[in-house]
């Protein structure tokens, strides 16, 4: 008997700190999808010093955005290896140009948009403090150090990574919004955008799970 396996392709979107990583892990676990993160792909290629990897590194070193065609080439190359599996794209497409290139090759079944209020994200990210020596991370809201500002194990001072400083977080959220709003619009017009709004991953997850069950069981 031939069993028809539905190949399902999804994209997950959401600002930095929206819980995308956690949700992606759960989707992969629950639905056996392959997770393809543009950040991982870039890092792997830079580490392996591939031709494209070196090109990417030269842009990043100059503080420039990696051009659409370079990113698209990389991601589509990796997606080729996943043609027989359901996949979850994360961090791509980031621009409408990238979305259009992707559409030419693959049909995207659904785009999951995590809509977490910026205020919540800001509070979440700016409350992270790190112990530089060990990489231990604290969160002043739900996992604070025993003594404020000091590492539990060594007693050394904690630092706030540049990425987690309020002004950096605000800048990252703003640029995410300007960059991705058109992409969300693009998918909304195609009728594949599903937005999940909430402040906590654990509360958003059941809705995503139910939605994906309804989509993939068809």
TrEMBL record:
Residues 128-163 form the Adenylate kinase active site lid domain. It comes from Polyodon spathula. It is found in: Mitochondrion matrix. PANTHER family: NUCLEOTIDE KINASE. Its main location: mitochondrion. InterPro entries: Adenyl_kin_sub, Adenylat/UMP-CMP_kin, Adenylate_kinase_lid-dom, ADK_active_lid_dom_sf, AK3/Ak4_mitochondrial, P-loop_NTPase. This is Adenylate kinase 3. It catalyses: GTP + AMP = GDP + ADP. SUPFAM superfamilies: Microbial and mitochondrial ADK, insert 'zinc finger' domain, P-loop containing nucleoside triphosphate hydrolases. Belongs to the adenylate kinase family. Keywords: GTP-binding, Kinase, Nucleotide-binding, Transferase. The keyword Transferase applies. HAMAP family: Adenylate_kinase_Adk, Adenylate_kinase_AK3. It holds the Pfam family ADK_lid.
């Amino acid at each position: 008997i031939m069993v028809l396996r539905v190949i399902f392709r999804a994209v997950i979107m959401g600002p930095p700190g929206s819980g995308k990583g956690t949700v992606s892990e759960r989707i992969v676990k629950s639905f056996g999808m392959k997770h393809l993160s543009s950040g991982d792909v870039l890092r792997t290629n830079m580490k392996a010093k591939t031709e494209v990897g070196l090109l990417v590194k030269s842009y990043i070193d100059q503080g420039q955005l990696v051009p659409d065609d370079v990113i698209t080439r990389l991601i589509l190359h990796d997606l080729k290896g996943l043609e027989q599996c359901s996949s979850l794209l994360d961090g791509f497409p980031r621009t409408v140009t990238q979305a259009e290139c992707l559409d030419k090759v693959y049909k995207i079944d659904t785009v999951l948009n995590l809509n977490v209020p910026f205020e919540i994200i800001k509070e979440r990210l700016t409350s992270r403090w790190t112990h530089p020596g060990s990489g231990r991370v604290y969160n002043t809201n739900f996992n604070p150090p025993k003594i404020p500002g000091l590492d539990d194990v060594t007693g050394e001072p904690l630092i706030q990574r540049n990425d987690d400083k309020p002004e950096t977080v605000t800048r990252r959220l703003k640029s995410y919004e300007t960059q991705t709003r058109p992409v969300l619009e693009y998918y909304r017009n195609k009728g594949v955008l599903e937005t999940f709004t909430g402040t906590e991953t654990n509360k958003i997850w059941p809705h995503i799970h139910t939605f994906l069950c309804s989509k993939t069981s068809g």
